Each structure stands twice: as C-alpha cells, then as structure tokens.
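ok trying this again, last paste got cut off
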Amino acid sequence: MTGRLNSAQPYALGLFRIVIGLLFACHGAASLFGVLGGAVGGGTIDAGTWPGWYAAVIQLVGGGLVALGLGTRAAAFISSGSMAYAYFKVHQPEALWPMQNGGEAAAIFCWAMLLLVFTGSGALGLDRLFASRGESEDKAASERTPVAA
C-alpha cells in the first residue's frame, strides 16, 4: 500500500498545486475584475490601491503560474509572503485566531504556498517539462562535444 501511495505522490502534489493555484488566481480575478462575486462588497479594487490591488495582482499572476507549474517555487514564495503580510497586517490585529479575525483564507494560502516552495511543482507542471527538455538538450550537446586529451 505504501509503495502505491509513494508512487502517486508527485501526481497528488501536482493536483494540489493546480487546485491551490486556481483558487488563488480566482481570488485575484474577483478583486481585479469583479467576477465570481467580486471583492468585498461585490465590486473591484481601485487600480494602484495599497495593498489590496497589489495583492490581487500577485494572487492572479502568482496563482496562474502556480497552477501551470511554471516558476512554481518563486511564484509560491512571493504568494506566500503576500498572504503572510495580508494576515498580519489586515486580519491579526482584529483578533488572535484566524477563526475570529476572518483570516482563514490568508493563513491557509500562506502555508499552502510555502509548502510548494519546498516541494516544487510535482507532476503535471511546466517546470518539469522544461527541465526534462533542458536535460535532454544538455545530454545531446555533451555527446557532440569533443573532449580534448
């Protein structure tokens, strides 16, 4: 049983990354474009408003990159930091616990993105596709390169 679970781990991690990335991007799209119920109050965030507009851009772009598995570790690092800032600047001053201060989403996204920083994209990501192409090109180039004696 453990062997099967271990062999499925990269795919489970890839699915986790896709779901977290899509959900994160949806939050950004809602804030920027008013889709999916919009930002707080059903509207959009005014362009350039600190920190909401910048957070929404990070959510949309970072979530999209994470979902695609493209630059996963860097995008997840920036996204995690953004959510940590959101939690401690916006939510935590209201109350100690996320259940009391409305910061559950910020806390969960922060930790989920931080996990992806350390695990990478898993299976089904563009990072892995580009890495395998690069490795095969490097191998082919090294086979063609004459070695001086």
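PB: full thing came through this time. The chain has one domain: 2-144.
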